Amino acid sequence: MSNSQLTPGVVPGRLPADAYSHNFGDHEPPLDVHEARVAADRCYFCHDAPCITACPTSIDIPLFIRQIATGTPEAAAKTILSQNILGGMCARVCPTETLCEEACVREAAEGKPVEIGRLQRFATDTLMEAGVHPFTRAAPTGRSVAVVGAGPAGLAAAHRLAMHGHDVVIYDARPKAGGLNEYGIAQYKAVGDFAQAEVEWLLQIGGITVKTGMALGQGVTLAELQKAHDAVFLGMGLAGVNALRAAGEDLPGVRPAVDFIAELRQAKDKSALPIGRDVVVIGGGMTAVDAAVQSRLLGALNVTIVYRRGQEKMSASGYEQDHATSAGVRIVCNASPVAVHQAGGALEVEFAYAVDGPDGLKPTGETFRLRADQVFKAIGQTLSGAPEGLEMAGGKIAVTGAGRTSVPGIWAGGDCAAGGEDLTVTAVAEGRDAALDIHATLMAARS
Amino acid sequence: MADLTSNFIGIKSPNPFWLASAPPTDKEYNVRRAFEAGWGGVVWKTLGSEGPPIVNVNGPRYGAIWGADRRLLGLNNIELITDRPLEVNLAEIRRVKKDYPDRAMIISLMVPCDEESWKDILHRIEDTGADGVELNFGCPHGMAERGMGSAVGQVPEYIEMVTAWVKHYSKMPCIVKLTPNVTSILPPAMAAKRGGADAVSLINTVKSITNVDLDSFSPFPMIDGKGSHGGYCGPAVKPIALNMVGEIARHDVTRGLPISGIGGVTTWRDAAEFLAMGAGNVQVCTAAMTYGFKIVQEMISGLSQYLDEKQMTLDQLVGRAVPNFVEWQDLNLNYVTKAHIDQDACIKCGRCYAACEDTSHQAIAMSPERVFTVKDDECVACNLCVNVCPVDNCITMVEMPKGATDPRTGNVVGDYANWTTHPNNPSAQAAE
Predict the structure, then answer these.
(1) Which of A166, A242, B93, B374 has its CA 20 to 30 A from that of B414?
(2) Which fold has domain A144-239+383-446?
(3) E strand or H helix at A194, and its extent?
(4) pLDDT at position A384, please?
(5) Do B349 and A47 touch (CB under 8 A)?
(6) How many Å lie between the alpha carbon of A49 and the closest alpha carbon of chain B?
(7) Is B394 a residue of the active site?
(8) Where does residue A274 fall: left (phi above 0), alpha (psi -120 to 50 degrees), or beta otherwise?
(9) What are phi and psi of B276, to 5 degrees?
(10) Does B344 lie at the interface with A, CB-CB under 8 angstroms?
(11) Mean confidence (pLDDT) of chain B
């Protein structure tokens, strides 16, 4: 092997060949039957449990854990999936440390919550590995709904609509369904092509057609969808990326972190992926952490996350931050990018320190430069190609109630809709709730 | 270190922890290991008559009940008395006792209910050097079908008769082991006393089926698709045993009859409770079968520390709780307590609320912020919230002082008064 971690530039194969399967294997291995029983025993079966309240999809967590504890993980899975059809993926990617597990009373009691996420995975994996789809379709209603975007929101909406007997057509711009589950999640969180397996499992409900390579303005228009279907659900996510607004942003080597993550997820052979010796990731969220950690796992020598505010304001959880630092990522805070410079064969990113005060960020006048072969921008995504005629709020589609847009017959949910945290689990909840509202609306119109 | 030396009906042992007659005491190898681990004495697994040895099943002998994390709470067994030749057992007993003269060596016996059989077995064990005999009138399975074990223990007349034979044909101290599979433990205990027993030991195991296999539909333990009842033991039976020990310890007729306490003793604390309820020593089986012989070291250190902290001798502990073991009618109805929730300790699980709201007296309020508080005007002090709370000492029962008004009843807390004088009692006698 010719390349190592010290090799300058952006090159593949920095690590020994066998390191990649280890690095990109299951970040958190699944519980075995015994471990699951021990973990389930710890649940107190709280009254009106705080974990349920903390879950955006309101999964009845004490019930499903009791079902695991009593040897019926299949029933546990149905409890989970009836609230959250993507419970398998959410078990892997939810920031449980800021949701259910943070609310767990055992977190208060001893700083060690019940391992809800891993138990959820145990249950859903058991059911899905058995190939069981526990839901059936209602009699056909003769109504049809268009869903734009095959990500968590769109899939959740489509499944719930199909369950109620509606015909659903999902349109997605990418070659594969799954949205961020397929393209935006760190490899080690969803190993084994889980996202596609989950989509296939979900589609077993029947009544759902997926048309890939199509999006609004890409083979189809909103007006056409309105005409061809009885209702439209928009869940196309955020395809745009925020700009650094720093000089030199267009230099080669500077790219959106989401593109890097998507490319990495789709790459069959991780050792063939070129990665810089020095990588700088700009941002403070989970995308920044995913990009930084995976850069290290590909063999980058120096990886730095630079965040403009204090570390406590990073939207990546403490758990994610620890994950990054334990992977060898350095986190630099209170610094904003000013410019990207060309320096020798590489780049240098110039940052200005700034203190975060009541009047916003105030530069201190001090600057520093970080050498970078690659710069990943992870400072948020934007809605691009929002259809005309829809009322917007904060750059996203404005919604009221269960995802109703300003136009009757059009609903929206997930990251493209205003409000709610941009989490997989939130998108699932919004898709599900919009579907129920669409169903109620269509049925009321028929009677 | 408190002195744990025990003298039970003249049988001395370095501590009051004996291994009960059961699989752990079936042979020399085990008993030597037990003594090396520190056990004060053993009751050798029950010997039967001379003749072809007993036959055991060749499938599972045990069934179990588990708590969280598969912690064994109850064990049941269908094993019979020793299945080894009598002479082998006697030779081993002789050897072990010779090597461990300071340990108690009791021989458990179970032979047919006729005078000759008892005379014969007592004669055979005479020269083993054993310190005493325990009459197994307790085992509820297998041998009972043959007219032995609990079949004897359930008929006080038989207990008295056999005990008298034993006392007649042997000079050894005689302990009568009682079965709990009776409606009242007192008649068997009285019968043992009448027969001249030096002590009783209790409880033997409780007739039980631990579970039913939901695939084969067989009770458990299962032998080729069938199950018969076994004898239940372990932590789950401790409450039954404590009550029976206490009943014998406090009754006019049986008071003073030495008791060897048995039934779910797992820790030093369990042992101390049996001693306080009137047992002169304790016998242990299931805990050893679950964790091995080493547990006795915790029992020794724990009991010793406790006695030191209480500045009490072992003898002073024995029976200490018996005077406080009364009938319901003697309980003070003017003892009024209210549950109190320590908000700093509360982890907001809401189990107290669910228990009280769904199944008790609707005496706990829950705020939208999940703050749980007791409604004193509804709280009957039942203690269920304390029992379901996962946090030690988070919920406590606070006694209302004399002269205070109970907001639930409107009554002023007064002096001691019990049911016998309560106006609602039709047979109450006015205090003259």
Answers:
(1) B374
(2) FAD/NAD(P)-binding domain (3.50.50)
(3) helix A194-203
(4) 87
(5) yes
(6) 7
(7) no
(8) beta
(9) -65, -30
(10) no
(11) 96
pTM to 2 decimals? 0.90
Contact present, B142 and B82 (Cβ < 8 Å): no
A39 in Cβ contact with A411 (< 8 Å): no
8 Å CB contact of A41 and B351: no
User: Helix A73-83 to helix A61-69 angle, to the nearest 10 degrees?
Assistant: 160
A387 pLDDT higher than 90: no
Contacts of B414 (CB under 8 A, 6+ apart): B334, B402
Q: Which range, of A424-438, B132-146, B167-181, averages the lowest pLDDT?
A: B132-146
Determine the average pLDDT of the residues in A285-309. Answer: 97
For residues A196-204, average pLDDT: 97
CA distance A166 to chain B (A): 39
Please enumerate in sequence order all residues whose Cβ is within 8 A of that of B4, keeping only pairs 6 or more positions apart, or say none. Answer: B14, B15, B16, B40, B300, B303, B304, B307, B314
Provide the pLDDT for residue A2: 85
Among the partner residues B68, B349, B351, nearest to A41 by beta-carbon distance: B68
CB A416 within 8 Å of CB A403: no
Cα gap A24→A295, rounded to integer Å = 11
Which residue carries 């810089």 as its tokens?
Answer: A276
CATH superfamily ID and name for A241-377: FAD/NAD(P)-binding domain (3.50.50.60)
- Overall fold of domain B6-324: TIM Barrel (3.20.20)
Number of residues that this document lists for chain A: 447
**From B139, B285, B352, B394, active-site residue:** B139
Interface probe, candidates B66, B73, B349, chain A, greatest A C-beta count within 10 A: B349
| β partners of residue A400 | A404
- Smallest Cα distance from B350 to chain A, Å: 5
Residue A354: φ, ψ to 5°? -145, 140
What is residue A332's predicted lDDT score, i.e. its pLDDT?
Answer: 97
**Cα distances (angstroms) measured from residue A246 to each of A278, A339, A381, B399:** 20, 5, 17, 71
Residue B94 contacts A where some CB pair is shorter than 8 Å:
no
Alpha helices, H only, A239-393: 257-266, 286-297, 318-326
Question: Domain B329-421, CATH 3.10.20.90 — does that match?
Answer: no
Question: What is the predicted pLDDT for the residue at A1?
Answer: 52
Asked if pLDDT for residue B431 goes beyond 60, the answer is no
Tell me the chain B residues in contact with residue A48 when contact means C-beta distances shorter than 8 Å: 350, 366, 370
ipTM greater than cut 0.95 = no
pLDDT at B430: 58
Q: Which run of H or of E encompasses B45? A: strand B41-47
> What pLDDT is stored for residue A191 in this prediction?
92
Which pLDDT belongs to residue A258?
A: 95
Residues A177, A196: Cα–Cα separation, whole Å: 7
- How far, in Å, CA of B177 to CA of B44, rounded? 13
Peptide bond before B203: cis, by omega within 30 degrees of 0?
A: yes
Report domain extents, chain A: 33-129, 144-239+383-446, 241-377
- Using a 10 angstrom Cβ sphere, with 0-12 exposed, 13-18 middle and 19 or more buried, the burial of residue A76 is buried
Across the interface, whether the CB atoms of A48 and B347 are under 8 A apart is answered no
The phi, psi pair for B374, rounded to 5°, reads -90, 135
CATH class of A33-129: mainly alpha
Give the ranges where B156-196 is alpha helix by DSSP (H): 156-169, 186-195
